[in-house]
TrEMBL record:
InterPro entries linked: Apaf_helical, LRR_dom_sf, LRR_R13L4/SHOC2-like, NB-ARC, P-loop_NTPase, Plant_NBS-LRR
Short name of one Pfam family: NB-ARC
Residue span, Disease resistance R13L4/SHOC-2-like LRR domain: 375-578
GO biological process: defense response
Gene Ontology molecular functions: ADP binding; ATP binding; hydrolase activity
PANTHER family found in the cross-reference section: NB-ARC DOMAIN-CONTAINING PROTEIN-RELATED (PTHR33463), RPP4C3 (PTHR33463:SF198)
Organism: Rosa chinensis (China rose)
SUPFAM superfamilies assigned: L domain-like, P-loop containing nucleoside triphosphate hydrolases
Name of the protein described by the UniProt record: Putative P-loop containing nucleoside triphosphate hydrolase, leucine-rich repeat domain, L
Similarity comment: family membership: Belongs to the disease resistance NB-LRR family.
Keywords: ATP-binding, Hydrolase, Nucleotide-binding, Plant defense, Repeat
NB-ARC domain location: 4-164
Length: 621
């Protein structure tokens, strides 16, 4: 009987409330519980709700876990609510219902009852952990399943499946392949990654070289051996552009998840996508690299569109290689940096990742970082203050990401970053951002989910800007006239749940929609136009390849922008026009109607029949 079948049977046992799965890293615990999650979710008679939280160890904070459970059960998160208050609501939600909660990669005791998860026969808990003691003693699991290493036959079967036909077509290769498979030590993660790295290799010499390398790891302890084997898989990446993409994935990963839009913004800023001339081409190039890394089993599919995942062992190896080869300063998510490295390190340092505010005070004397290309700092609260001259020693900086910062004014030294390609000021509280206009080389500017009230006229000086992300800037009330029309190279404009105070043409106090017509290279647009009467004729060009456009006042309350354009594969149009606009439907709107793949129409009974010929196989009405 498979362990999945045993777990499913145990979930039906009224005497078993808590279960655990233990095993070493890379043995397949996450894969197993994801299959349990899938089967349990499909069995509507077994549970009313099934919740899974992956990679709990990366953020074991009880309140964070509690909030995720609350959200996944479809409950509202109240901002001013205490842990205790939320626990009462959660407990009430769970009582009387059949619930399964899966917590993956638990490393220490979690007081579930304090979070509002009661011990009830109808509330089942499934945990994974590397050690049996945490499950049995700390979490008091009624039953613990041991996930062992693969046996020889299982190892060979998995290896053969991942490596492909070559191991069966050539007898000499097959003999070497069997030995290589056994050198993976029965660890599914290694079997899959090593086999995937060899699946395109036709020559016997490549297989023999792989066996020789793996044999050289025999004397190492198991964790080091796994690291070295994964490093070997990294070494097999043929494409020179693929390796820096993989290492960047390892640095920007958050709780095993990687946001592909962050990858795009960082990758373009660092020049990692070669021989591209547009943002669309960079997106295509990135997608190709991501698929190659998935094929090599170094990346996994994400839980949602626009995201990918990285196994924690693979992530550790990526960071190990990056720190060793690229002189990178990085802190684990919610980790701590106790003191700054010495001057000699910063002279060699190429990238700094500080995804937590748990760091020493930023030095008043500027860090001398002549080779630094990327600086990432997550403030998380108001405690991090950036000195005015902080960036003086970072003249080669290409990517700057300051997230969750409170900056009434920007550091003066920001204006001297003349090599800067990408600036991300996401989830920030911002005042005057006039200084950004001095960054003459800037190609990507992101203010995603930031509190900012005005986009000043100086932003119009960024004539090399190719992407502007104003998504979720709900407080943005003013965009100075001519700013948008001055961004003559803009290809990608994102304004989801953002500015919509479009000025009527001829007035001069705010941006007007007609400015968009000056953007001859615009190929991606996300926008809401609440007043259809101010829509200029032929606003939308045939050059729009990706769009997410809401027109009319019907959509604010009834439709949420659940997914950003970057995560949506369908071109979306939601349309409510006045009678005047219906009868005078221009060529731009006709083109959008024909090319829309997710289409919503409101009060358009008078729409002429010949305007409604839409390819049914593409559209959702």
């Amino acid at each position: 009987m498979s362990i999945v079948k045993e777990i499913m049977d145990s979930l039906k046992d009224s005497h078993i409330h808590r279960m655990g799965v233990c095993g070493i890293g890379g043995v397949g615990k996450t894969t197993l519980v994801k299959e349990v999650y899938k089967q349990a979710s499909e069995d509507k008679e077994l549970f009313d709700n099934v919740v899974i939280l992956l990679d709990v160890k990366s953020n074991p904070d009880p309140e964070a876990i509690q909030k995720k459970i609350v959200e996944k059960l479809g409950m509202e998160l109240l901002q001013t609510e205490t842990i205790e208050g939320r626990a009462s609501r959660l407990c009430a939600k769970i009582q009387g219902k059949k619930i399964l909660i899966i917590l993956d990669d638990v490393q220490e005791k979690i007081e579930l009852e304090d979070m509002g998860v009661p011990r009830l026969p109808t509330c089942k808990i499934l945990l994974t952990c590397r050690t049996r003691e945490v499950l049995s003693l700390d979490m008091q699991a009624n039953k613990v399943f041991q996930l062992d290493l693969l046996g020889k036959e299982e190892t060979w079967s998995l290896f053969k499946r991942m490596a492909g036909d070559v191991v069966e077509q050539n007898g000499r290769v097959r003999d070497v392949a069997i030995q290589i498979a056994q050198k993976c030590g029965g660890l599914p993660l290694l079997v899959v990654t090593v086999a995937s790295a060899l699946k395109e290799k036709k020559k016997l010499q490549a297989w023999k070289d792989a066996l020789r390398r793996l044999k050289s790891f025999d004397k190492e302890e198991s964790t080091k051996k796994a690291y070295l084997a994964l490093e070997w898989s990294y070494d097999q990446l043929d494409d020179k552009e693929l390796k820096p993409i993989f290492l960047l994935c390892g640095m920007i990963v958050m709780q095993n998840d990687i946001c592909l839009q962050d990858m795009l913004k960082y990758g373009m800023g660092l020049g990692l996508f070669k021989n591209i001339s547009t943002v669309e081409e960079a997106q295509d190039s990135m997608d190709t690299f991501i698929e190659k890394l998935k094929d090599s089993c170094l990346l996994l599919d994400g839980e949602t569109e626009g995201w990918v995942r990285m196994h924690d062992l693979v992530c550790d190896v990526a960071k190990w290689i990056a720190r060793r080869d690229q002189y990178i300063l990085s802190v684990e998510y919610r980790g701590e940096l106790k003191e700054w490295p010495g001057k000699d390190f910063f002279k060699k340092c190429t990238k700094i990742f500080l995804p937590s505010s748990n760091i020493p005070t930023l030095p008043e004397i500027p860090l001398e970082c002549p080779k630094l290309e990327l600086f990432n700092l997550n403030g998380e609260d108001d405690s991090v203050v950036i000195p005015s001259n902080f960036f003086n020693g970072m003249q080669k900086l290409k990517v700057l990401d300051l997230t969750k910062m409170c900056m009434p004014s920007l550091p003066l030294s920001l204006q001297y970053l003349k090599a800067l390609q990408t600036l991300c000021l996401d989830l920030c509280t911002l005042g005057d951002i006039t200084l950004v206009g001095q960054l003459s080389s800037l190609e990507i500017l992101s203010l995603l989910k930031s509190e900012v009230e005005e986009l000043p006229r100086e932003i119009g000086q960024l004539t090399r800007l190719r992407m502007l992300d104003l998504s979720e800037c709900s407080q943005l009330e003013v965009i100075s006239p001519t700013v948008i029309s001055s961004l003559v190279r803009l290809e990608d404009l994102r304004m989801r749940n953002s500015f919509n105070k479009w000025e009527v043409e001829g007035e001069n106090s705010n941006a007007s929609l007609s400015e968009l017509k000056q953007l001859s290279q615009l190929s991606a647009l996300e926008i809401h136009i609440p007043d259809a009467d101010i829509l200029p004729a032929n606003l939308f060009s045939d050059k729009l390849e990706r769009f997410n456009i809401f027109i009319g006042d019907a959509w604010e309350a009834r439709y949420s922008w659940e997914k950003p354009m970057a995560a949506v594969t369908l071109n979306t149009l939601k349309l409510k026009l006045t009678n005047n606009k219906i009868m005078g439907l221009d060529e731009g709107l006709k083109s959008l109607l024909k090319r829309s793949e997710d289409l919503s129409l409101e009060q358009l009974q008078q729409l002429p029949y010949n305007f409604c010929i839409i390819e049914k196989q593409k559209s959702k009405l």
